[in-house]
């Protein structure tokens, strides 16, 4: 070793590192090009994201405001309670039709002194059909107010609302049977007068769906409750089952043909189109188990089937990512396999498991196709569930199903609500994500 | 001094046999990693396993506390007895065995928990402490034996993974001794340590010998010579030579041993 002769440094003069040779130049150029492609790709992505968000916000925000008309309605005793006995049953006998004259009178009073050629009986077309029902409900709840004049804030019709939002123009109304351009002139005057205004519409977020003819009173609240109960079912079932299955497969199961087969099948299940799960849900939960149709519990069970593979795959990945040295360490001090998993491996895998669960839940939340087959799409979600049990069992819709339903309806006012529904859905999703991030922070250890 | 140390070694080698391996074969699927190994390891002795990389030192070490059970493809044949009891008997629960046979790994692997919890974990799951005060005691004692108490006593709540590599390894040793094992297996415990920490760990190993049978795998001849009373030389899955450390390093019988020690194979 020591007797090797020192070979002289090659006679070729060393190249200066201040000069960049051709090869390096080529390499640098390639790198630059690659970076440029990357940036371009990100820009394209960002552009589409911005365009999407802009479209959603542009189209969806009008759904969150609604035009209301403030009216002083005289609750005439001779119309509402002829006997004067305030017998609640008798008052209930007066249908919404009986309230029409009162509303008409109120409108005539409100438009007193305004220039218009509309006949008195056509004035009520400014208002939503729900106005009469709203006043009737009030009277039934407060029979002692009969005979008084009470101020009501009632919904304007969707055309009026559309006019104030710029969706409906005078030209559109030329062919409209309900509203005439004269109505719009009157509305202009009423807006100036302050009796018609557009205000934030909580009823859109909390309310129930309405029939085809009353888009102004349709809300997404009830189907949001439907979605909520479905997510509850998915969370309660898919998380423990998925995590338990993954832990077993990853930590306990022997490696053999059978477990390989299971593994391949789980990966395949994650790629199965969701409508397949829908028809499975229909066959198993409704036709075989006779669970009620359109019920969130069935939707939840069906979506659980769909979410399980996602949770299993991500949980297994995060269990795999826990360094084996931690398992060795625990086993080395005499922990059992189970203690090793639950004391050391699972806590470290928790953030990953939560991420997977949230991705699965988010997928399930936005899923429409399987709901089609179990009758949750097309169901008019017009009643709030009465309690927790009926929340699971009573027919209901879900947010994406509701959005689809609205988008399908002819009235452009519903189209606007579909966009608004998407905003609510996205906010719901965002809330779920934020909760997940907070939980993940809790579990994440900094070391 | 030299004489005294020699005497000491002589005495310790006359101890009872703690671990006795008979015709041990280990297979990783088709790979025959340990071939017919017979060895008797004495109590209260440090036994060093040396040999070139891939010769099966770790594999054999892991047989002694049945860590190989966790590897699906691994198959162990033959008999390994600790205190005369076959550890591969059907009735043996490896979990119970591992409480008796502690292990320190090549790479420091503290739990991502506090220093205190790292050491307290073993005693906790084995129910060695009746209350918090007792547990505190056990932890302190273990950390002292791991020669790390002075460095960490003020920050027992700090994460174990925040320590330096050498400190982590000593923490792992403390963790292993906290469960009061009878045998301590160490797989290259000093490979990540600087000379000072190595010296500390070696001192510690010498001390542990009072109570335990220590088996240490090492790539450092000097270390084997310094800390062990017995040395086993493995080569290609065979136990080539097993004798007193002095003998192995001064007058080996097998020529493979000699060439390995003198640096010609490896
Ligand atoms: N988990 C495993 N699966 C399959 N084969 C393994 C496994 N662990 C070790 N082996 C094989 O067993 C043989 C012995 O390996 P072992 O780890 O015991 O060597 P070693 O003597 O500890 O080496 P080193 O000094 O490098 O740590 C090698 O041929 C190795 O490829
Ligand atoms: Mg090794």
UniProtKB/TrEMBL annotation, chain A:
Its main location: membrane. GO terms for molecular function: phosphate transmembrane transporter activity. It is found in: Cell inner membrane; Cell membrane. The keyword Transmembrane applies. Residues 224-436 form the ABC transmembrane type-1 domain. One of its GO terms (cellular component) is plasma membrane. This is Phosphate transport system permease protein PstA. It comes from Cognatiyoonia sediminum.
From TrEMBL, chain B:
GO terms for cellular component: plasma membrane. Residues 19-261 form the ABC transporter domain. Transmembrane segments: none annotated. The keyword Lipoprotein does not apply. One of its GO terms (biological process) is phosphate ion transmembrane transport. Keywords: ATP-binding, Cell membrane, Membrane, Nucleotide-binding, Phosphate transport, Translocase, Transport. One of its GO terms (molecular function) is ATP hydrolysis activity. PROSITE patterns: ABC_TRANSPORTER_1 (PS00211), ABC_TRANSPORTER_2 (PS50893). Pfam families: ABC_tran. It is found in: Cell inner membrane. It is a peripheral membrane protein. InterPro entries: AAA+_ATPase, ABC_transporter-like_ATP-bd, ABC_transporter-like_CS, P-loop_NTPase, PstB-like. The keyword Chaperone does not apply. Part of the ABC transporter complex PstSACB involved in phosphate import. Responsible for energy coupling to the transport system. This is Phosphate ABC transporter ATP-binding protein, PhoT family. It comes from Cognatiyoonia sediminum.
């Amino acid at each position: 070793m020591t007797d090797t002769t020192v070979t002289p440094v090659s006679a070729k003069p060393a190249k200066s590192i201040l000069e960049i040779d051709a090869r390096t130049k080529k390499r640098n150029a390639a790198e630059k090009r690659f970076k440029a492609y990357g940036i371009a790709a990100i820009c394209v992505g960002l552009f589409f994201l911005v365009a999407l968000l802009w479209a959603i916000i542009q189209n969806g925000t009008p759904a969150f405001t609604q035009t209301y008309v403030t009216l002083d309605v005289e609750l005439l005793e001779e119309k509402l309670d002829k006997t004067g006995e305030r017998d609640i049953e008798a008052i209930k006998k007066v249908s919404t039709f009986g309230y029409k004259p009162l509303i008409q009178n109120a409108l005539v009073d409100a438009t007193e002194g305004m220039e218009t050629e509309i006949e008195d009986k056509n004035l009520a077309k400014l208002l939503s059909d729900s106005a009469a029902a709203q006043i009737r409900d009030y009277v039934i709840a407060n029979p002692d107010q009969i005979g008084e004049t009470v101020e009501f804030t009632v919904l304007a019709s969707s055309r009026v609302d559309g006019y104030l939002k710029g969706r409906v123009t005078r030209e559109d109304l030329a062919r409209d049977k309900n509203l005439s351009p004269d109505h719009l002139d009157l509305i202009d005057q009423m807006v100036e007068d302050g009796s018609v205004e557009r205000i934030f519409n909580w009823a859109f977020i909390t309310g129930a769906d309405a029939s085809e003819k009353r888009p102004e009173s349709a809300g997404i609240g009830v189907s949001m409750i439907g979605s909520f109960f479905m997510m509850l079912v998915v969370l309660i079932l898919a998380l423990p089952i998925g995590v338990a299955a993954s832990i077993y497969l990853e930590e306990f199961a022997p490696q053999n043909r059978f477990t390989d087969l299971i593994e391949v099948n789980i990966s395949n299940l994650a790629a199965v189109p969701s409508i397949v799960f829908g028809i499975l849900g229909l066959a198993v939960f409704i036709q075989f188990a006779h669970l009620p149709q359109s019920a969130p519990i069935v939707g939840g069970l069906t979506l659980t089937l769909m979410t399980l593979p996602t949770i299993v795959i991500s949980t297994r990945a995060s269990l795999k990512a826990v360094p084996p040295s931690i398992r060795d360490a625990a086993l080395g001090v005499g922990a059992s396999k189970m203690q090793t998993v639950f004391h050391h491996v699972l806590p470290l895998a928790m953030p990953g498991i939560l991420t997977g669960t949230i991705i699965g839940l988010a997928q399930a939340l936005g899923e429409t196709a399987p709901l089609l087959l179990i009758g949750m799409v097309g169901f008019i979600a017009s009643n709030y569930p009465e309690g927790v049990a009926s929340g699971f069992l009573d027919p209901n819709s879900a947010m994406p199903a509701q959005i689809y339903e609205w988008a399908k309806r002819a009235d452009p006012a519903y189209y606007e609500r579909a966009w608004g529904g998407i905003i609510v859905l996205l906010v719901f999703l965002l809330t779920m994500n934020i909760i997940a991030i907070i939980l993940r922070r809790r579990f994440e250890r900094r070391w | 001094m030299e004489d005294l140390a020699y005497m000491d070694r002589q005495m310790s080698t006359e101890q009872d046999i703690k671990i006795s391996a008979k015709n041990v074969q280990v297979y990783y699927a088709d790979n025959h990693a340990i071939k017919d190994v017979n060895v008797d390891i004495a109590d209260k002795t440090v036994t060093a396993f040396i040999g070139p990389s891939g010769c099966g030192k770790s594999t054999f070490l892991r047989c002694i506390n049945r860590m190989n059970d966790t590897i699906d493809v691994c198959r162990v044949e033959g008999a390994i007895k600790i205190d005369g009891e076959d550890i591969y008997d059907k009735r043996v629960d490896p979990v119970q065995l591992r409480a008796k046979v502690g292990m320190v790994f090549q790479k420091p692997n503290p739990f991502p928990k506090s220093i205190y919890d790292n050491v307290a974990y073993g005693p906790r799951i084995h129910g060695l402490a009746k209350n918090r005060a007792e547990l505190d005691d056990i932890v302190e004692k273990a950390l002292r034996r791991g020669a790390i108490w002075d460095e960490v006593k003020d920050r027992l709540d700090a994460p174990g993974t925040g320590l330096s590599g050498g400190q982590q390894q000593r923490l792992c040793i403390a963790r292993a001794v906290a469960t009061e094992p009878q045998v301590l297996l160490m797989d290259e415990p000093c490979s990540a340590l600087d000379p000072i920490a190595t010296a500390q760990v070696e001192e510690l190993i010498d001390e542990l010998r009072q109570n335990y049978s220590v088996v240490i795998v090492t790539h450092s001849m000097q270390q084997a010579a310094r800390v062990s009373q017995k040395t086993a030389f493995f080569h290609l899955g065979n136990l080539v030579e097993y004798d007193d450390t002095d003998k192995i390093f001064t007058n080996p019988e097998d020529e493979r041993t000699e060439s390995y020690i003198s640096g010609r194979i490896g």
